[in-house]
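Hey, weird one. I pasted the dolichyl-phosphooligosaccharide-protein glycotransferase sequence into the form twice and got a warning about non-standard characters only the second time. First submission, copied straight from the form history:
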Amino acid sequence: MTRTSKPCRRARRIDLTSASALSAVATSPTTPSLAWAPMPTVAPPWPSLRPRSRPSPRSVPCQPMTPPSTGPGRKVSDRKPFSANMESRWFNDNIRERWRMDDLRGVTESLLAERPELEPEFRALLAVDADGPWTFDDVPLDSGTFGEVVSRGLVEEAAEGYRLADRAAIQAAIEDEAADADPDRSADPENRVAKVTDRLRAVRPSIDRRAGLALVVALACLVAIRAGFGFGSVFRNGDVVLTSNDPYAYWRHVEVLRLESVGLFDLGSLPPAIAESDVLFVVVLWWSASLLGVETATVLAWYPVVAAVVGGILLYLLAVELTADRRVGIASVLFLAITPTHAVRTSLGFGDHDGFDLLWLLSITLALVVLAQQRRDGRTNWGAATALGVSIAAQTMAWRGAPILLAPLGLSAAAIVVDDVRAGRSPLRASTGLLAGFGLGGLLTVAAHVLLGWLPLFRAVAPALLCLGAAMLVGLADVASRFGWSTRRFVLAEGVLGGVGLAAVLVVPPLAGPLSGFVRYFETTGTRNIAETASMFSAEHGSIAAPIFLFGLLFFLAIPVLGWLTFRTYRDSEPGWLVIVVYGWYFLGFAVVQLRFTVVLAPFVALLSGLSFVHATAWLDLARPIPLFEPPGTHPRRGIEIPEPRTAALVVVLFVLVGGLCFVQAPLSVQELRIEDSTYETGTWLEEYTAAENLTYPEDTVLAVWDRVRVYNYFSTSRWEPGRYSRDYSRMLASQDPTGWYQRLHTNTGLIVLSAPNVNAPSGTVEAALARPLDATPSLTTSHYRLVTLRPGDRIAIYRLVEGYRITGTGPAESTLPIRASVTVGDRSFPYRHTATTNESGHYALTVPYEGQYRVGNRTIRCSESGCVAAG
């Protein structure tokens, strides 16, 4: 590569602290305009005050410098008084800055001329240096090259590593070198591609190796808690035993799609029960099981752990985006790993929709924060806008309750627009990316509804309505900005607009119906026997101590920080943190109402706890402070340093003090969800029995207590969805009409599992009759309920609904005849006791469920598949 000389290029460094040097420069023929004033001996004011922005050396040729009081068209005699000290300070600052930049630029160009292969390494070095101080391990230079770069003054030692001495000078030298190499280089397509490749390589994100290792450790802790403590209870004897009850509903949905041989891309032919429910979640499970070639239950068992890992990564990115501090990201992931409520609902085997919902919730939050952070400098990250739109659509299609999770998105948009008005920003320009994301989300959901038949109407149009509302708010904010409205006046106008929008929704029947259903659902809070629908502060969950069992001490660490951030975002314009404030308070309110929403509150509790923890370590002089509330890009992202052993030990002790209770509670909570041995053994018995008897629907379908009914049907391999009929179980047990309930149930049920019956059940009820084999003096009765197995130790009895055998005969009119028999079930014998009542003519008829010989009055009757006949 041939080097060409540059005009005004300095070949040596000049000591600007020397008065003789300054005089020499002032009288030099290359700088005639500097001879206009004497140069007193004044020490330069180090460090010099660099200008905030500096034109590129290539765009501004070297020119004689003009003092600030003179300029083109002005005489020296016209200038204002300018003291010698001021003149010397100005001269020293500007000469030093230009001379230093030219000198470093020349050194860089000289090094590149000697070793042109270093250009890509210099570009990578610029990219790494953009993130702040770095170490030798962070840059792609060998020790020899690195030593040469340091010896030439291009790299300076900083407090926390190394920094480039002058990024602008080095960048200018690299670009100048590329341009001087070949004036026609850009005309060559191959060189154009190479240039683009070099630029992409230069701007690739830097990776802090220590932060990466710390993140891996935090994620490993997350996996260990979720998978390590429940592995043996999920994978038993070759069976996959999912935890809790709801995951079995999704197993059934996926099995229906696989057994009916629906094409993987035939998405418009899904059954309505799937297409109008948690359709995207079911489709992703279906695709995963089909493409991996594994059982549906295996995918459901492992998916929550995978979702937790991805969610942890998203939380890390969110924390670093907000704080520019990787330590906060690592601490947040660690706290999320040990949060009991999150550990439970993302544990191995808990294949419910929660983990999938959290992925999209965190994706939406991250994209929204990125867009909010960039409002202050007028930029728009179109990648974040696209991610926002896709995540909104995915969130809507993932869960039938998705509008609850989308509502804080609209509230955040409203709060951000208010912040724009208060800060004097143009809401219309700043909200371009936000509205684009909302619009994309609305377009995708409406397209899925129209083209594939997915989602009921109210869910399909929810993102579109959200986009419309946001657009109206932005338009109103633009009007407020143009006409100089006060913030209070705009907030009032915004409230009126929101009220009008809500009223408009209420008069549209397809939208008003689901909204009223939503209200009715929350009116039942605490009235149903379902743990997750109770309030977080309900008495059965510990009242005011309940957060300890759900979040440990993290709840009490995070909520004060949330309050402080609320005050800070009210006082100053912090649009990124404003999103966290809105989401935090919103989900805290829902968690207070129903326990199930604590899982979506968990990531925000972890984030705020991580922020609080790192701040506490800085306050205790164990770590450096957090660069909070600085404009994006003004502070490099801080990495992870290895502290001294004593400092590290103190940080660990502090972490144990804060999270120690979580370390105990999280594994215990995961264990509580496991399917107990009695239920598993009953399930395996049902599996063997239905296979041996070759039972099909409805004879293989089980009715049981609601929180185990899906487990039993999973083992009996029934394709029936029993959830909607599980409420019949308690009503049947309380009834005094066993025959009537048989007539009601036998068309869709074949087996009944009675577990832990009430020992004081009222006499004459179905529960009392079915529980007799479990009494101290066991016996059998009823007509259509045949006992097929008994587990007295677990207080479980399984009955099969049968048509039975019809016994008829005559006796004394209007009298009661006793019926006696001895029935063998398994290896045990039970007395069967029943009665037959004759009518006015002395006839009687009754049904018995077992084959065998019965004694009716003074007659002996034998019942078999061919009927009941009198025994010889």
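That's the output from the first submission. The warning seems to come from a hidden character in my clipboard, not from the data itself. Confidence is low (pLDDT under 50) at residues 1-99, 179-187, 198-205.
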